[in-house]
Amino acid sequence: MFGFKYIKADPSTHLMLFKEGKIKLEGVGVNFFYYAPSSSLVAIPSNSKELPFVFRLQTSDFQELTVQGQVTYRIEQPHEAAKMLNFTIDTKGKYTSEDPKKMDERVQRAVQVLLRNHIESKSLRDSLVCARELTIDLKKDLDGAEAIASLGIEITDVALTSIKPTPETGKALEAEIRESLLKEADNAIYARRLSSIEQEKSVKESELETEKAIQKKEQDLEESRLEAQRLRKIQQFKINQEDITAQIEDEKQLEELVSINSANEKARGDAQAYKIQVQMQAYQNIDTDKLRVMSMSGMAPEQLIAQAIENLTQGDNQIGNLNISPDLLTTLTNT
């Protein structure tokens, strides 16, 4: 009515009221009445905005790749943004120009330029594996970019979701990587075989060393056994020598004993012969009959009877027949 209007900004919009080129009223989420014919309203969003992007870039080795990601930003300094772009709204709250849409384009362009500078300084292989490093560098560069700072924009987040080569290049890289992996697998197999051979060689050497040690131990044992046998034989030889020496001494003593016994036997024989000679000389002077009577003096009765019977068969007293009665025979046998 009469040109007076009422406006209410939401909590995510920084609203400014301009009159005669000067800010009369401003704030986030403010509401007020204003006179439309002499007033201008500028509405700058203060909430964060997510801006996805996809860029086709070229590496230092002239290979194309696609970088996809997202940048999140917000207008931190609305006055700076209002100076660079037209955020004027009409009485219905709609922008009167296309400048607010250019904000996204400018941010995208700044991101594209910075990404291009980074990618062009790297080879394809390095670019495909530098997502983390590139994200950090991009965030830092955007914070210091003049094009971003002049718009009063704050970059709150940068995320790179993928870095991909062209399909043909991707297949070539996959083939190369596959061949490299196969080669590494072959090398691993050869390495395992070589390691197995080395281990088997080590085992064989250990077995040979063990066998040599066993043979050396057996040789030492055999030498010890032979040395023990030699010592036993030397000891046995010494014992035998001592036995022979003892036997020789015994034989010498036995020889002396035999010699002494022989001398003694000879002496006893000489003494006995002398005794018999003396007796015979004594018997030669004695009459035969007397000698016989003397010899019969110590005889037993049966011997005397036998001598009497013998006398009957000799000399002048010889008889032709001799009859012995049973009584006489019994008497003779019982005698």
Description of the structure:
It contains nine helices and nine strands. By secondary structure, it is α+β, with helices and mostly antiparallel strands. Among the domains are: 1-47, no CATH class; 48-165, Tetrahydropterin Synthase, Chain A (2-Layer Sandwich), CATH 3.30.479.30; 167-221. The protein has a four-stranded antiparallel β-sheet with strand order 3-2-5-8, with helices on one face. It has a three-stranded antiparallel β-sheet with strand order 6-7-9. Strands 1-4 form a two-stranded antiparallel ribbon. The termini are far apart. The mean pLDDT is 84. It is a single-pass membrane protein.
Query: How much of the polypeptide forms β-strand, as a percent range?
Result: 15-25%
Oligomer: single chain
Distance between the termini: 206 Å
Could you tell me the CATH topology label of the domain at 48-165: Tetrahydropterin Synthase, Chain A
Residue ranges: pLDDT <50 for 5 or more in a row? none
Can you tag this structure with a few keywords?
335 residues, alpha+beta, Tetrahydropterin Synthase, Chain A, four-stranded antiparallel β-sheet, three-stranded antiparallel β-sheet, 60% helix, Band 7 domain-containing protein
Short description:
It is built from 9 helices and 9 strands. The protein has 335 residues and is an alpha+beta fold.
Topology (SSEs and partners):
Blueprint: E1 4-8, E2 13-19, E3 22-28, E4 31-35, E5 40-45, E6 49-58, E7 64-75, H1 78-84, E8 88-89, H2 99-120, H3 124-128, H4 131-144, H5 146-149, E9 153-165, H6 167-284, H7 288-296, H8 301-312, H9 326-334
Antiparallel strand pairs: 1-4, 2-3, 2-5, 5-8, 6-7, 7-9
